């Protein structure tokens, strides 16, 4: 039959259309990865500009106003538009494979989540060209934000509202996927840790993003439609913004760090060639961190005058988080202990991560002591602390996992030698940049300042810090070069690239066919691929069903159209306070486009299509040669 | 996945069983609805009757708690143990309650209006 022929080469237009309409978790994973890398580069560049400004005292490389914009966009972009999508990239690409699923539970929503995030991000960045970026810090405290002139803050509010909706949708999608789509035999307590941390972190998204949405909505009506939620002169209260923001904001740091923990919990056992130590305590610690993460937000507000009782309660709750976190650290160490360790690039990142993250955790506990925080608050000590957890914990996880999972995602391997070089340049640069900032903070240098006076003992440390930032930038450039070189390298066409893979994603031969597993696998225990390998099963898995037709979802352009609708409406809302005549019509047209596509989606049934057995066999032969995936 | 979808005709016995089952369900639904209306009435009544605030506040909070449980378990069918993933759903709902409680507590205690 003719439909059995498998096409391989497509024109540029067709490829582009394919990516715009795709609902495939693997392609969306790649799109998240590249979009995240793009914004990581932009925000990194902003950081570099700030560090150049702070290299020498009384510098005038950028103006004070520009510095505030760079600072705000750096923080906002890094957290919402770089770290989050990069981690979503790995979740999309890996989690369905780890649990033996065909795709996520709602492929259409997966695509919608991506496009909302991406267009929200573009919207936020357009602020640079349309009269100035937001400048009230990534925390956007109402007492600053309400009085910021121009449209910067409006870009922040609307951009985050749109991309936040995307994040929430993706989070819910992962929860449903992990709960309902695990292969037979994959019980909760057999799930790999990356899947576990994805589940918990998606749950945190589910509970934490609504308070942010509420806060942003209040801010939006305050600024654009003249309400007074945060205006104390009109009976509002500016502190409520801080509460709403941090009720979201503290869980947000765990939303980012938990998947990073999960990634390292995958990397370390593979290269220590030893089962993960204390699996069930790892799961328990993940859940406990998730819970406690919601009980501590006021540690960001110790100095706002909550009173001694409230400060004491939140201080103790914060310190309690150190316990499950410590459990995790000891488990990683015990996994490495006595293993026959292979120091590859991902493992290097893991080995660098442990001490760096512990340092960040220790300063976190210091800040949790409320009386001490009166000294540390808003100083460079805080900047050092959170960069140790964010860069030392999350960015190392992302870079390490790029090397680790590149074979599965792209059927190519990143260059090891260049990877080692990149690691050392980046890692040394990171400690040079941030270690001395602890002392700058203790010596009294406040955070979020655009310059400083000479001869206060800060000059040398700031200079060294800027040199470190330049090294980190070189490291990132090397990583990008590595990616470009690798794109030209030969495809791997193998399974279990590292040779010591343990969980299910390594059992599948690359390139992964669009339907993932030709038959749903049967899981016989924790580390299923390792189990099968151990039992001499060459195929790497046993199957829960005979080879049959595969049901797949259709591609759709509607998610992109829906997101464009919200993007257009956001411009209407943004210019509404200027009193332009077209603002309300634009809001209506934009939302109209979104609602119309939603109606279209609901009215027109889309039942997907079947890939018939012959096509499955043909695809397998096309990808892996005669005999298919054996 | 997803192959072989069977369509099965209902037998007469099955039909009657379902019918009875649905009737029972409906009766329960109506009774719970009546209870909820009654509790709402009580809440209004204590306010209208002008009791001391130290009586009214705890009573209303208690009634609110009962209403939430009724709402979740009766109207939103969380009592349906056989439904798939009910354990997970209950865990999520009650985790949400647990998480929002300290938020509620801080907002009524330490925020100065
Ligand atoms: C694990 C990932 C973590 C991330 C990504 C993270 C991130 C951050 C960020 C961005 C801030 C700055 C807030 C601001 O703008 O003022 C901050 C402050 C703070 N962090 Fe963390 N943090 C993490 C872990 C921890 C831990 C483990 C603790 C304590 C056990 C902790 C305690 C604190 C405290 C008390 C502050 C407030 C300091 C102040 O504002 O004076 N953090 N963190
Ligand atoms: Cu926090």
UniProtKB/TrEMBL annotation, chain A:
Keyword Transport part of the UniProt annotation: yes
Q: Could you list this entry's UniProt keywords, alphabetically sorted.
A: Cell membrane, Copper, Electron transport, Heme, Iron, Membrane, Metal-binding, Respiratory chain, Translocase, Transmembrane, Transmembrane helix, Transport
Pathway in which the depicted protein is active = Energy metabolism; oxidative phosphorylation
| Any Pfam family the entry gives | COX1
Which intervals hold domain Cytochrome oxidase subunit I profile? Answer: 11-524
* Membrane association type: Multi-pass membrane protein
Name the reaction it catalyses. Answer: 4 Fe(II)-[cytochrome c] + O2 + 8 H(+)(in) = 4 Fe(III)-[cytochrome c] + 2 H2O + 4 H(+)(out)
Q: Where is the signal peptide?
A: none
Give the UniProt entry's GO cellular component terms: plasma membrane
For this protein, the parts annotated as crossing the membrane are 30-50, 70-91, 112-133, 153-181, 193-220, 240-264, 276-298, 304-327, 348-370, 382-406, 418-440, 460-485, 557-575, 581-600
InterPro entries to which the protein is assigned, alphabetical = Cyt_c_oxase-like_su1_dom, Cyt_c_oxase-like_su1_sf, Cyt_C_Oxase_1, Cyt_c_Oxase_su1_BS
Its EC number is 7.1.1.9
Q: Where in the cell is it found?
A: Cell membrane
Top-rank taxon of the source lineage equals: Bacteria
Q: Name one GO biological process term.
A: aerobic respiration
The family note in this entry says: Belongs to the heme-copper respiratory oxidase family.
**What protein name is recorded for this chain?**
Cytochrome c oxidase subunit 1
- What is the originating organism of this protein? Ureibacillus yapensis
Automatic annotation (TrEMBL), chain B:
GO cellular component, alphabetical, reads: plasma membrane
- Subcellular localization, per the record? Cell membrane
A Pfam family recorded for this sequence = COX4_pro
Top-level taxon of the source organism: Bacteria
Which InterPro entries does this chain map to?
Cyt_c_oxidase_su4_prok
Q: Which UniProt keywords apply?
A: Cell membrane, Membrane, Transmembrane, Transmembrane helix
Q: What stretches pass through the bilayer?
A: 30-49, 55-76, 88-112
The way this protein sits in the membrane is described as: Multi-pass membrane protein
Q: What's this protein's name?
A: Cytochrome B6
């Amino acid at each position: 039959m003719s439909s059995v022929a498998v096409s391989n080469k497509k024109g540029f237009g067709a490829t582009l259309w394919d990516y715009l309409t795709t609902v495939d978790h693997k392609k969306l994973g790649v799109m998240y990865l590249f979009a995240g890398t793009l914004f990581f580069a932009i925000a990194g560049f902003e950081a570099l500009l700030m560090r150049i400004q702070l290299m020498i005292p009384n510098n005038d490389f950028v103006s004070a106003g520009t510095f505030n914009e760079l600072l705000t966009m750096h923080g906002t972009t890094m957290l919402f538009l770089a770290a989050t999508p990069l981690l979503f990239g790995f979740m999309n690409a890996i989690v369905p494979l780890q649990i033996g699923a065909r795709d996520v539970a709602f492929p259409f929503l997966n695509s919608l989540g991506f496009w909302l995030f991406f267009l929200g991000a573009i919207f936020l960045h357009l602020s640079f060209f349309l009269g100035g970026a937001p400048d009230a810090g990534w925390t956007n405290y109402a007492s600053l934000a309400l009085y910021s002139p121009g449209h910067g803050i409006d870009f922040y509010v609307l951009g985050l509202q749109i991309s936040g909706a995307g994040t929430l949708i993706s989070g819910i999608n992962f929860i449903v996927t992990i709960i309902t789509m695990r292969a037979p035999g994959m019980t909760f307590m057999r799930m790999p840790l990356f899947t576990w941390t994805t589940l918990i972190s998606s749950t945190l998204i589910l509970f934490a993003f609504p308070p942010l949405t509420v806060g942003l909505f209040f801010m939006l009506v305050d600024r654009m439609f003249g309400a007074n939620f945060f205006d104390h002169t009109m009976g509002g209260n500016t502190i409520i913004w801080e509460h709403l923001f941090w009720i979201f904001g503290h869980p947000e740091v765990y939303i980012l760090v938990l998947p990073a923990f999960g990634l390292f919990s995958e990397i370390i056992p593979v290269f220590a060639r030893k089962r993960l130590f204390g699996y069930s305590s790892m799961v328990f610690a993940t859940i406990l961190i998730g819970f406690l993460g919601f009980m501590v937000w006021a540690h960001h507000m110790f100095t706002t005058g909550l009173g001694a009782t409230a400060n004491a309660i939140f201080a103790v709750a914060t310190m309690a988080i150190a316990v499950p976190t410590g459990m995790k650290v000891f488990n990683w160490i015990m996994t490495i202990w006595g293993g026959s360790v292979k120091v590859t690039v991902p493992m290097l990142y893991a080995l660098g991560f442990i001490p760096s993250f512990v340092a960040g955790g220790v300063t976190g506990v210091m800040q949790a002591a409320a009386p001490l925080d009166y000294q540390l608050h808003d100083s460079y000590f805080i900047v050092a602390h959170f960069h140790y957890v964010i860069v030392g914990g999350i960015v190392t996880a992302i870079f390490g996992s790029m090397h680790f999972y590149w074979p599965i995602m792209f059927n190519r391997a990143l260059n090891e030698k260049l990877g080692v070089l990149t690691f050392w340049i980046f890692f040394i640069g990171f400690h040079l940049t941030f270690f001395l900032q602890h002392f700058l903070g203790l010596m009294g240098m406040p955070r979020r300042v655009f310059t400083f006076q000479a001869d206060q003992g800060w000059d040398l440390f700031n200079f060294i810090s800027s040199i470190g930032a330049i090294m980190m930038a070189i490291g990132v450039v090397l990583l990008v070069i590595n990616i470009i070189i690798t794109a030209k390298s030969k495809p791997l066409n193998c399974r279990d690239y590292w040779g010591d893979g343990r969980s299910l994603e390594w059992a599948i031969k690359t390139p992964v066919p669009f339907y993932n597993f030709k038959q749903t696998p049967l899981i016989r225990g924790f580390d299923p691929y390792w189990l099968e390998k151990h039992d001499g099963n060459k195929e790497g898995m046993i199957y829960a069903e005979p080879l049959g037709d595969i049901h797949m979802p259709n591609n759709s352009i509607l998610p992109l159209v829906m997101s464009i609708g919200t993007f257009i409406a956001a411009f209407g809302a943004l210019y509404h306070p200027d009193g332009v005549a077209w603002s309300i019509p634009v809001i209506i047209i934009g939302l109209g486009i979104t609602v119309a596509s939603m109606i279209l989606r609901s009215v027109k049934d889309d039942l997907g299509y079947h890939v018939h057995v012959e096509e499955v066999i043909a695809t397998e032969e096309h990808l892996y040669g005669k005999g298919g995936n054996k | 996945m997803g192959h072989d979808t069977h369509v099965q005709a209902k037998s007469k016995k099955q039909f009657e069983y379902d019918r009875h089952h649905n009737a029972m369900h409906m009766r329960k639904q109506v009774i719970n609805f009546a209870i909820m209306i009654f509790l709402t009435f009580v809440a209004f009544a204590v306010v209208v009757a002008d009791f001391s605030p130290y009586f009214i506040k705890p009573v209303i909070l208690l009634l609110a708690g009962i209403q939430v449980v009724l709402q979740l378990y009766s109207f939103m069918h969380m009592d349906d143990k056989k439904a798939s993933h009910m354990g997970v759903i209950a865990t999520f709902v009650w985790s949400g309650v647990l998480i929002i409680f300290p938020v509620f507590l801080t907002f009524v205690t330490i925020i100065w209006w």
